[in-house]
Write a structure and sequence with these properties.
Glucose Oxidase, domain 1, 46% helix, disordered N terminus
Amino acid sequence: MSTATTPGVVCGVGVGRSAVIAPLALVRPAPVVPQETHRLTEPADIAAAIATAEKALAERAGELAEQAAAAPGALGEVLLATAGMAADPELVGLVRARIENGQGAAAAVDGAVTEVISMLTAAGGLFAERSTDLRSVRDHVVARILQLPAPGLPELRQMFVVCAADLSPADTAALDLEKVAALITEAGGPTGHTAIIARQLGIPCVVRAVGATRIPEGTLVAVDAANGTVTANPDPALTAAIRRRAETERVLAEDIAPGATADGRPVPLLANVGTPQEMEQLDAGVVEGVGLFRTEVLFLDAVTAPSREQQGPQYARALAAMKGAKTVVRTLDAGADKPLAFAVHEDEDNPALGVRGYRLVRTQPQLLEEQLAALGETALALAPEDRANLWVMAPMISTPAEARTFARLARAHGIQTVGVMIEVPAAALQAAAILDEVDFASVGTNDLAQYTMATDRLRGELADLLDPWQPAVLGLVAATARAGTAAAKPVGVCGESASDPLMALALTGMGVTSLSMSAPALPAVRHALRHHSLAQCKAIAEAVLGAQSAEEARKAARALADAQMVARLGL
């Protein structure tokens, strides 16, 4: 998690396990808004400036909508939301008001966006994260008004490592991802847009790589996501090591056996997805099911709450893609860093600690009722043998009473297998009582780390506190797993910590029964499990739970793991 820099090497936070070598391509900077020496006074000039600004905003919104239609999975949903921001009547109104007050078109757009960004930043969470999206809108619109080249990259004609101060979803969508060997940003964090997209697509990525944009364009760089490093002009030894790792990844991907330890203890390996389209793209021979279907992604562009009639076909399509394999559906997890237009509480000072996830039943109970009704009706249409493989869980459960209420509601709608997310320390500490009420639990380590360490998961500069190896977080995961073992009920992990092969061994040793992650991470985790017995996993778990720091825990796991496996995977 270090961000120190040595000559020729820039360090940041790695996303994924892969490493590549390719030339560096720098993203073009944003246009500079010229200083205005006079104000508009003539009605004709004001009208022309308004028309120019509104046309540029509308054209950018249209471009984003077109990109959204062609983009895969979650990226398309985010782009559609960004298109809505470009066309937002409130933003257009702020621009118009500034021009009517005498500003030119470019300055008015710049000022209006700055005003909106201030409000988003004050709101915190994903509202603040969306500031990057809105800045991208501003940059493209201002460039259009000033008749300058659009910010971003020129057309890529070969494989490049793309490097930028930051990347918005729109910037990423404009890339030819088939020619992107890796992504580097100086800003962002491990749970930001760039990281999520890179993880989903299996592209090596390093974020918070401060100083990377000072590497001259065209320089050959080695990007190592596992170690979070960017090395300019890699020497022959590093080049050879990265090539060996690439060959290892190719070989590992050919192994499609079910997840299990060396002595045959099954550990199902599942995928985290956000849309039916992503499910249809999964390789059934590699993925044993879906451990997290994030249903809120389906509704990012909805202005009003979707009805059960609107939701039903989406769930039917998703389940059809899985062909009867286990599918764990998370009910709506809106609020905080996942704001939806129909589920926003604008008066919250700290949305991450407010009405989010399951807590929406306190203010909008119909949202959960409609979703459970749609899921129940979809389940009834399934064959009986497939119906049992539809698992439904609620996010942000904090107490046994909440678990009991959710289970009663879900079962009343005909859902057979009901569970909860363990993301709040209080829920982990009461896991035994919660599991008395439900059939399974799934630990969301991303949010569990956020709440345990009192650290906003979108604050990249605090990424070390969100390290999944933090002993306090691991202790809560282990307590939940022990409760599951005692109750003979499954406890999985669906946070991205499951994608770390060393962490997967520790989690298995703690008693975690399944691991769910982005699909590209599965081969390495499968390989790690197959080279360790359950007894070895338990020894690793015991060692990491006795550590006093994240670094100490990671070192303890590495020391006890099979040395050849560690070298093979570059851990």
